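Lab manual, section 2.4: Encoding a predicted structure.

Procedure: take the sequence of the chain (306 residues), apply the prediction step described in section 2.3, and record the output as C-alpha cells. A sample record is shown.
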Amino acid sequence: MSPVLNPKLADLAPIARSLAGGGQNLNVSFEFFPPKTEEMEATLWTSIRRLAPLNPSFVSVTYGAGGSTRERTHRTVKRLVDETHLKPAAHLTCVEASRDEVDEVIRAYWAAGVRHIVALRGDPPTGFGDYAPREDGYANATELTAAIKRIGDFEVSIGVYPEKHPQSPSKAFDLDVLRQKVDAGATRGISQFFFEPDTYLRYRDAVADAGIKIDLTPGIMPVTNFKGLRRMASACAAHIPDWLEDLFDGLDDDAETRKLLASAVAVELCLGLEREGVENFHFYTLNRADLVYAICRILGLKEVSL
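Recorded output:
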C-alpha cells in the first residue's frame, strides 16, 4: 500500500484526496489512431489540442493490422513532431513486411525526429487467425525490438497482457517472452485494458517475482460503446466482469448515461491502482478527448503552460 503524501489528506474520500493534491505525482500518456477521413482528422486534432495541456509523458499512434495504416501513422506522428510539444511514440509491427521494409520505416521515424517506438508483433491483415511470420520478415516483437535498438537509440515500449496473451499457452510462457523482449532492449510494458485493479496488480507482482526489470504502465479503456468493447475484449481475451455488464445493461440507446458511467468506472479503477503505488497511466482515447480529460482532472491533473 502506498503512503499518503500529506497526512491531512488521509481522511478524505479518494476523489477529494486527488483533487486536494494526492494526484500530483501521476504521469499520463495517451493513445490515438491515424484518421481515415478529413472529418476524423479534424476530430483527432481537436482531441490532441484538448489533451496536450495535461502534459502527457508521451502520446502513441497505432499501426493497423497488417501494416495497413503505415503511411497514415507516419504522417500523424510527423505532424505531432512538427506542430506540437508532445513526444510521439510510433507503433510498429512486423506483420506482412520484410525485414528491409521494417528497417526502412524505423529509419524514417528516426529521420522524422521520433525517438520512441512501441514494438508489437501485430495482427494479420484480417485481424483474426493464427499469426504466420514471413520468411524474410521479423518473427515477433522480440526480434523487432532488437532491430529497432540496432538501428537507433530509440526508447522501446512493448505490449503486455495481464490476463495472458490470447495465443500464449501459459502465463509462465508470457513471462519468458517478456524477459526476452527486455533482454532485446524494451524498457516499458503498456498493458492491455482490464477493469479490476487486482488483474493488473497480480501481473505486476508476477513480473517482479520473476526478476524482470521493466517499467509497467496500465492501459485504461474508458467504456462508452459496450457492444464494441465486447468485440475488442473477445479479440484480446480480456475479461469483462459481470458487474460491468450489469452496469451498462439496457443503455444501448442512452449515450449520455454511458459516458457518465464510463468516467466513474475509469476513475475508480485508476484510484484503486494509485492506492497500490501506480503512478503512470496510459489511456486508450479512441481519438476522443472529453472522457479522458475529465478522468485526468478528477485524478488531480491540471493544465500546464508550455
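Check your result against the sample. The chain has one domain: 26-222+281-298.
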